[in-house]
Amino acid sequence: MTEPTVDMAIANSAELDETESKKIARGLLIRVLGPAADAINEALSRYTSYRVGNVGAIIERADAKSRDSVESRKVVNPRVAHVLLEDGSYCDDDLMIDYLGGVLAGSRTPHGRDDRAVAWSHVVTSLSTLEVRAHYLLYREWAARLHGLADLNLGVSADRYRATMDLDLGEFLPLLIEGIEVPVQDALGHAIPGLIRVGLLENEYYIGPRENTGEPDARFEHLLRVMPSVIGLELYGWAQGLSGLSPGDFPAKVTAFELEEAIPRLTGVLLPNLPAPAAA
Q1: Rounded to an integer, what distance in angstroms lies between the CA atom of residue 279 and that of residue 248?
Q2: Residue spans per domain, the chain
Q3: pLDDT tier at 36 (50, 70, 90 boundaries)?
Q4: Model pLDDT for residues 153-189, shown as the tens digit of each residue
Q5: Are 63 and 32 in contact (CB under 8 A)?
Q6: What's the per-residue H, E or C state across 18-32?
C-alpha cells in the first residue's frame, strides 16, 4: 500500500475535497520550507503514516509561529529541514512538537543559508519528554516573571544567580509527570540533572525539604531551587521562533508562550534573590 504524503497529513480533508486539500497543504509546505519542500516531500513519501503525521504537526506549528507577512518571504536551509524533520518524525509529544516547530520557524532566512537550527533540533530531540516539559515549565515562569526587568542582564552569571527560582514541589511535580508513565520518585532525579547535564540549567540546584536549605522560614515545605543557563534561555527563545536570542535580551523579547492544549501556569514560585519579583 502506498504511504500517505505530507499533503494528507497536514490538510483538513474532512472539510475540503482531496484536490483542494492537497493544494492548501502543498502551499503550506512551500511557505514553511521554501525550496527544500520538494526534496522533503519526496522523502516523506517513504515515511510511515505515524512519522508523516508528526512531521505535519511540526510544519503546522512552524507556520503558526511564522505568521508575519515578512516571514512568508523567508525559507529554510535544506540541511535544517532534513535534519529537523528526520529526527522530529519520531516525536509525538505535543510539547516537543511545539519546540521543533519554533526551531523550524526561527531557522527561516531570506536566502536559506542559516543552518544554526541543525544544532538546536539535535538538542530538542536528544531530550526526554520529562526533560522538555521541565524546561518549558521552568523557563515559561522565568519569561513571565522577569519580563520587563531592564536592569537584569542574564548574559552575566551574577544576574543569572539573581534570577534563581524556588518552586513548590507539591505543585511542580504533578504538572511535570502528568500523562507521562514515569514513577514519581524517579521524575525529578531524571529531569533536573538531565537538563544540567546538557547545559540547559546551571549546575547549582536543590531538591528537598526547606529545613535543609538553612532557611527555616522558606515559603514552601518542599522545594525545587534552580538557576537559568545561557543555553536554556536561548532554547526557550528558539522554541517560540526567536533565533539567536541573546540572554541579555530575554527579559525584553521573550514571552510566556502557551500550547494549543495549555499546561497550567505555576503559582508556587518565588525569586528569592530579587527584591521585587515582577508580577506573573
Answers
A1: 20
A2: 6-125, 129-270
A3: low
A4: 999 999 999 999 999 999 999 999 998 888 888 999 9
A5: yes
A6: HHHHHHHHHHHHHHH
Q: Are 149 and 260 in contact (CB under 8 A)?
A: no
Residue 155 CB partners (closer than 8 Å, separation 6+): 230, 246, 247, 248
Beta strands across the sheet bearing 222-226: 206-209, 222-226, 165-168, 269-270
The pLDDT of 84-94, averaged and rounded, is 86
Determine phi and psi for 195, rounding to 5 degrees: -65, -35
Q: How far apart are CA 212 and CA 7, in angstroms?
A: 56
The 3 state secondary structure assigned to the chain is: CCCCCHHHHHCCCCCCCHHHHHHHHHHHHHHHHHHHHHHHHHHHCCCCHHHHHHHHHHHHHHHHCCCCCCHHHCECCHHHHHHHHHHHCCCCCHHHHHHHHHHHHHCCECCCCCCCHHHHHHHHHCCCHHHHHHHHHHHHHHHHHCCCCCCCCCCCHHHHHHCCEEEEHHHHHHHHHCCCCCCHHHHHHHHHHHHHHCCCECCCCEEEEHHHHCCCCCCCCEEEEECECHHHHHHHHHHCCCCCCCHHHHHHHCCCCCCCCCCCCCCCEECCCCCCCCCC
> Residue holding cell 519520531?
90
Per-residue CA distances from 102 to 32, 180, 185, 260, 274 (Å): 12, 23, 31, 13, 30
The grid coordinates listed for 231 are 543555553
The string of pLDDT tens digits covering residues 237-265 is 999 999 888 999 999 999 999 998 899 99
